[in-house]
Amino acid sequence: MMSESRPKKFPLDLPMMGRITETGMILNLITPVLDCVLMAASMFWKVGWSLVLGFFLSAVLQVFVAKDRIRRALGRDGVREIALATAAGAASSSCSFASAAVMRSLFKGGAALIPSLAFLFASTNLVVELGLVLWLLLGWQFAAAEWVGGIVLIAILAVLVKATYPRALVEQARGWSEPGRAMPPAQPSWRAVARSFAGEWRMLRKDLLIGFLVAGALSVLVPGEVWRGLFLTSAPDAVRVPLNALVGPVIAVLSFVCSIGNVPMAAVLWMHGMSFGGVLSFLFADLIVLPLVGIYRRYYGPRFTSYIVAVFYAAMVLAAIVVDVGFSAAGLVPVARPHAMGEMADFAIDYTFWLNLAFGALAAYLFWLARRNPVGAAAAPSCCGHHA
């Protein structure tokens, strides 16, 4: 009787199976990380040239516009002084930390409180580079809303501060003792422009890096259902708009991202269902992130810091709601495109490529010029005939 043929058995290679499993686990961990980094890099690629342009314009204005004259002109809380401070801020730096330092020098040098605060908000919300990045990542409607909202915010802030003006706290803050060192004024020149440009990049590089990485990670890792639940996307506008405006600054504070670094994160929030006003309140809130609150505390003391943070938060929320209602009534609120974040991962030789190439060369030249002419170096004739 013939025996039945049985399938041949092969011994299991357990070490090999273990290595395959381990490799699969590593790939499962690495792939999302690479996706997050790719998304962050693609977002930066879309806006890199605009950052260089904005920082260059900001550096030119900071070097060639005399701040002492501005300080002398801001001694009252009048409409003229507030308007002048707003215009000066819009022509100044977009770095939240640098703006806070300039605001401190204005306020402690004799400028009135409301113009000093107007300068602070204008220098972070009405600057060219911020509008350019918003336009590229979110559309012209957001750029317009940021600029209009910045003016509305300053107007609301002025009303709130006048209605609650704490005279004793203001005088205490103006005389608050805090460590600091004065930098010698630089003679206006293109060498000074290069140093200002490089210095602003140094101040902002961590914020920009964190901002793009956080936005890339959240766009890849957080499910859309989580965002939609947080932003009450199914609620009526009468409920959703004010609640989103209230939660926007809270997200900004917890994310620790300020200055232009919060724009990529704003794009993520918008694509996942946050209201128009909620995104605006998030953008406005770069001035109350925790590191800056700590700086205010060192500059002005804890009591005055608590006051201005509370006033800032109220003004941000109210301004965001006003702009949301106004833009909605005018039909200017864009429709969020759920696949827009994925479209950012496309790299191509287009106008963005050539603009990044041109402005990258400008940035490289300015960094080289700043490195060749550090602060305190011996004065030498510049290309324009001035001295550094």
From TrEMBL:
<protein>
    <submittedName>
        <fullName>Membrane protein</fullName>
    </submittedName>
</protein>
<dbReference type="InterPro" id="IPR005524">
    <property type="entry name" value="DUF318"/>
</dbReference>
<keyword id="KW-0812">Transmembrane</keyword>
<feature type="transmembrane region" description="Helical">
    <location>
        <begin position="308"/>
        <end position="336"/>
    </location>
</feature>
<feature type="transmembrane region" description="Helical">
    <location>
        <begin position="144"/>
        <end position="165"/>
    </location>
</feature>
<feature type="transmembrane region" description="Helical">
    <location>
        <begin position="113"/>
        <end position="138"/>
    </location>
</feature>
<keyword id="KW-1133">Transmembrane helix</keyword>
<keyword id="KW-0472">Membrane</keyword>
<comment type="similarity">
    <text>Belongs to the UPF0718 family.</text>
</comment>
<keyword id="KW-1003">Cell membrane</keyword>
<feature type="transmembrane region" description="Helical">
    <location>
        <begin position="276"/>
        <end position="296"/>
    </location>
</feature>
<feature type="transmembrane region" description="Helical">
    <location>
        <begin position="47"/>
        <end position="66"/>
    </location>
</feature>
<feature type="transmembrane region" description="Helical">
    <location>
        <begin position="20"/>
        <end position="41"/>
    </location>
</feature>
<dbReference type="Pfam" id="PF03773">
    <property type="entry name" value="ArsP_1"/>
</dbReference>
<feature type="transmembrane region" description="Helical">
    <location>
        <begin position="246"/>
        <end position="269"/>
    </location>
</feature>
<feature type="transmembrane region" description="Helical">
    <location>
        <begin position="208"/>
        <end position="226"/>
    </location>
</feature>
<dbReference type="InterPro" id="IPR053166">
    <property type="entry name" value="UPF0718_permease"/>
</dbReference>
<dbReference type="GO" id="GO:0005886">
    <property type="term" value="C:plasma membrane"/>
</dbReference>
<feature type="transmembrane region" description="Helical">
    <location>
        <begin position="348"/>
        <end position="368"/>
    </location>
</feature>
